[in-house]
Structure formats: structure tokens, C-alpha cells
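Intended use. Records such as the Bulb-type lectin domain-containing protein entry shown here are meant for training and evaluating sequence-to-structure methods. They are not intended to support clinical decisions.
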Amino acid sequence: MEVHLLSFLILYFAVHVNSKSDIRIGYRVTLAIPIEYSVGFIGRAFLMQTNQIEPNFKVALSIEPIDGKYSCSLQVFLGDAKVWNSGHYSPFFTSDKCVLELTKDGDLQLKGQREQVGWRTGTHGQGVERLQILGTGNLILVDAFNRIKWQSFNFPTDVLLWGQRLNVATRLTSFPTNSTVFYTFQIQYNKIALYLVSGKLNYSYWEFKPSKNRNISFVELGSQGLELFNDKHHKIAQILSPKGIFGNVQPRLRFLALLNKTGNLGLYFYSAEKQKFEAAFQALNSTCDLPLSCKPYGICTFSSTCSCIRLLTKENNIDSDCSKGFSGGFCGRGKNEVEMLELNGVGSVLRANAPVKVNISKEGCANFCLQDCKCVAALYSVGKCFVYGVVMGVKQVGRGTELIYMVKVPKGVHVGGHGKSGVKKWVLVMVGLIDGLVILLVLCGVGCYLIQKRRNNISTTDNNN
């Protein structure tokens, strides 16, 4: 069976090719790629769906615009939420057509121009008979005896579905747009954690550990929360959605997701009243606790706004880019060309894996970072020194904390000729000004509301008289 579909250049194009829950060998469907590139275009052919009450699972062949090119992928949706994507880690780009074929020897393939294979399951010669979508959202290839030869649950992306399992050393991964860093949700023996990854650098920004140092073997999403199990399949810990926020009825959770934009982790249920998915639990509830709430070299303030660690030299002026003066890096510069800027009342949500030095002074920690050209910041805490290869996740903290955050800067930077101390004052003044401005706007708004309310009362009284 072969189906050809033409995609027209519109904002969204979708057809239902097949409403069954399986596709057999020899099946082939083709979507044409638009001649001109359009940012808003999405071409989608729905091939299969489950027989469930909405929202149900649907399988689609999709064309999507990415960075000036069109990607071709096989996707699984729960309602409108994308829960699996064959091109999540490595998009397959094509310029002519997007083809899905379940070959006669049982290999599921995505093809482009000149029958170029961009993705495949690698199941040829294993007796595969058909492709199915289960009620759990698991996309599977089975043989004549219904034995599973391939399943999407073994290739997690950024979503964990109800009934799906994540073992130790597996992870969910999401990629924020226009960024060289990405997020991961990792299952480790002693904890589950969220990480910001930049090259070979990994920094956690949220974690959960079972009590009594019990080891984790795998995690699953239950109807009320995320459940952690040991190697004997005994539940040792769980993260439950808060009680009481839904009234007397606790809705069933449908999936866990690692969000691309924020890096936050959420447990989601379907609201029939609002006809959309909502978060029953989120790992991070404050904007400033998110690793990329501000740009690199930005500071998230108490009012959840961003201020920059701005440096003013003779060569450059103050710019909207917080990385101005830092973007070139420090490798290639001598030790005498850089110094450490201590930021009072500032910390980081990023946690280095382990201290590089212990029983060390603050000055020793600063010198250690200065001697390593890849080190751009250091965090000192009671004799422990942590170093960073990125300046991200920086936020304003209360005075009197035991943490001291230091940033490497070019030597001699100044603001208005005040040198290093001037930079400290500039950072603190900018943070204070932003918070003060927000408070002033709030007070003005409250004052205007009270004045208007008083005028309305006076006007009502005059009308009554």
C-alpha cells in the first residue's frame, strides 16, 4: 500500500491517512516538501490512533522548519502534546520529500530525496509484520507472534509516559532553541537530578535522593506521582503531586516532561474542563532557580528580573549583551591580565559535581581559578572551592550566607575610573536599582488604584445626593 500526499504552503497542514492502530509491511506514505521555506509551516499526516477517550495517542509523519531547513520525522502525540520524536537527537533534513516506509523485510525507515535513508529501526530480517501504537503511547514493531522487536519506550526523548520505565544511566534530554547548552534529567544510583550540560561540563540544579542512602534501579510514572524502585522492584521513594489543589478528585498523571525552554521538570495531567495539559508538580517554582532565567553573565534579582555583570573599559561601552567583555574567553591571556571579582550577595543555582580543593582559603580558591584558563568563576564555601566553566544560573541571595561567588574578569576593568571596587559597586547598584524600580512601580499602581477608587466613591455619593 502506497499513499502520496502533497503538502501546501500554509501555516498548518494535517490529514488523517489511517485511523487504525497498526500498519503492515509494504506500507509507504509520502509528504512533499514545500519549494519555499516558511517558518510557520508544519506538514503532518496522522497515520494511526488509539481507541481511547480524548486525549488519545496519534502517530504522525511530520515536516517541520528548523534553521532554514525542513526536518522529516515520525512523531507520537497525546492530544496536542508531542511525547516522542524520531528526530529528537538528530533531525533528518530533506529538501524534496519525506517518506515513511515499512519495508517488506521489516525495517521501518524515513527517506528523503533519491531514497536516501535518514532514520531506521534496524529491524530488517527479524520477522516484523506490523507497526502498532499501544494505549500507553508505546510505538512498537511486532512479528507474527506479537513479540516486540522494537519499541519507542526504549528510546526516551524529553517525556516519560505513564507505564514507561527509565533505568539507571538513562536520561531525558531537552534542547533550548538558539543555545549551545542543553538540559538532562538523569537517573543515578543515589539520586535523580536535573543537569545543565555545556560541552563536557555538567552542573546539576535540582536533585532528589531517597532516604537512608537507598540505591535506585529504575523510575516509573504512577497515577499520582513519580515512583523510585530498587533492584528488587520495591518502591523506595516517590514524588507525589500536592494534595488538595484539585479538590476531592485527584486527576491521573499522564506524563513527565523536561521543558525545552526552562529546563524545569513537571508532572502533567489532563484538565477536561480547560481541555489542555496542566502541571500538577514542578521541580522548580521560582524563576531565579531556573539555570537560564538570565543570559550568561546575568544576575536574577529578588524581583525575578535580570541585571548584568557589566564591565566598562576604554575599548567598549555598556551594552545590552551581558557577555560583553567576556565572550572571547580567557585562554591565551596571562595570569597578570585577569583577576577575580567578588560579588557580594550573589550565588549560583548550578552545583559543581565536587569541590576541586578542600581546606583552602578564599584567596587560594581565587588563585586556583586564575591559574586555570578554562575556569571563569569560582564558588567558595567554608574551606571548599568549586570552579565553573560557565557563568550561568547566577542569582541574588540574602546577605550573611557562607557562599562567596567570584567571577574572572579582565584586569583593570572599571566603571567611571573606580577600578575593581567600582565594578562591585556597579553590579550592586544595578541590582538595587532594578529592584527599587519594580517596588516603586508597584507602589504607584496601588496608589493610583486607591485614588481612582476614592474618586468613584465620591462620584457615586454625589449622584445619590
